[in-house]
Amino acid sequence: MPGNVAWRSLSPATEVHVAPHGQWLQTLMSQPADAEPQTHIIIWLWEDLVPTQTLLTWERLAEEGKQQAVTEWLNTLCQPLVQRLQLRPQDTLLVGAYSRSPASVFGTAPSVLARLSNEFDHQLASLHQRYPSLSNLHLPLWLQRHGYSHHFDSRNYYLMSCPFSMTGLVSLAEWIAPLLHRLHHPAHKVLVLDCDNTLWGGVVGEDGIAGISLGQDGIGRVYQAFQQAVCYWHSQGVILALCSKNGADDVWHLFDRHQGMVLTRQQITAAEIGWDTKSAGLRRLAQQLNVGLESMVFWDDSELERSEVRANCPEVTVVTPPSEIWEWPDALMMLTALHRHQHSPDDQLRQRSYRAKAQAQEVQQQLGDERAFLQQLRLAAKWQPLAPSNQLRAEQLTQKTNQFNLSGKRYQAGELALFAKDQGDVWLASLQDKFADHGMTALLMVRPLNTNTALLDTLAISCRVLGRGFEYWLLAQLATALMAKGISQLVISYIATDRNQPARNFLATLPTHPVAADVGYVPQADEILLSLDLPLVSLPYLEFYTHE
């Protein structure tokens, strides 16, 4: 249904084109290989895809035969998706399938339909590991959350080949919108929560542990459900922090002693508990976590506190909770600012890394000597080339790294794959110390310009591992690899932004000089090219590292 008002939630930032009914394959495969990156949303209805006779045939097979038949059929169905991404890895595919009935419209073959749906999810998850830009829309989950009764319209289905009602189309667009948004806008890293009348009902400093509402019947169950939603975001890699006007001992005593608490002290990475303004607390949290204020989402029950933060920390995303507290758990679960297009295993490593960072800061303060501190850390680093298994993490590093990002360039997974295939090398590096395994926290993109010169297109390092000389170790590894290929000059691409001062400071420590001649690369208007003579470079901090 092209031009339908239901697409309004998609159209402000997206130009929507609707393929003719039944021509998804022709539309998908007709795009030229060199066209601009595109996002294709493919929505399948099982009733349209699988003939009833096929289902009945599958139903009569033995269990092993059913599984084999379903798997082979789905392999054929998904093959064009794979072919498309192999031809155009810069594209993104969002794919979903569902049935019009919560049970089975086929009636005679419900078990086969359930098997089909489960195997479809399994295959998409497997394909996503190889092609991170292919994702599941999870439409059965959307229908489960929003209900079947008002989302389908038989009249639309038979007259216009659209099974959805107007309500269903609007709901579907709203379900897809956060996924599209996250393709080009990184999700926020940190969820900052108030405590009193947010994590529990009442004021712990006045009501005491026994007087608050949490976990009992009625409203106490709502606060507990809200905490469960908080835990969900923690499981998705979001950093949790507290910013509360309270006594710290009262808050932590409740965390440790109240049986209704779902959230644990160990899940909280940082906290500002005291009597200062919330904006001041948020700024200290940002400094402690070494993140920008724009990475934060703030949830507080008080409109006064929310207004104060909006006025003094406009970069922070301040949530206005629903007026009815019963709606809070669902509102938090569906919070667009936290939704990730994809979820990386390194998200959990990031949480442990931020906690380890606080421990390391304590040790550094105790020692008071940088060299003694670095010697104690037992730093171990390694790097690896771009591969299907780490493409998602590579994309995250280019999209989300701001403070130490020399060029500030952003790439999607498909673009990184194309760069590695046709232009040069993409490397990821990981770091481990005695406090934590920080995972893959750095990305380098380099390509040859001529026989003895290479361009460092991108060097991005997560802010959580700065202060360890990691950037010098990375440059040393790159220099060794390039000189082994006969390359002696490294041209560094640098674009100044309002947030990459740490990268600028690093660049100032290197013996660079302006590029004196044409090296076969035309810089952007705001791009600065600096040259580094690799054989002459002597770098600090390398003695503190072991590497593989």
TrEMBL record:
InterPro entries: FkbH_domain, HAD-like_sf, HAD_sf, HAD_SF_ppase_IIIC, SGNH_hydro_sf. One of its GO terms (molecular function) is hydrolase activity, acting on ester bonds. It comes from the Bacteria. This is FkbH domain-containing protein. It comes from Aeromonas cavernicola.
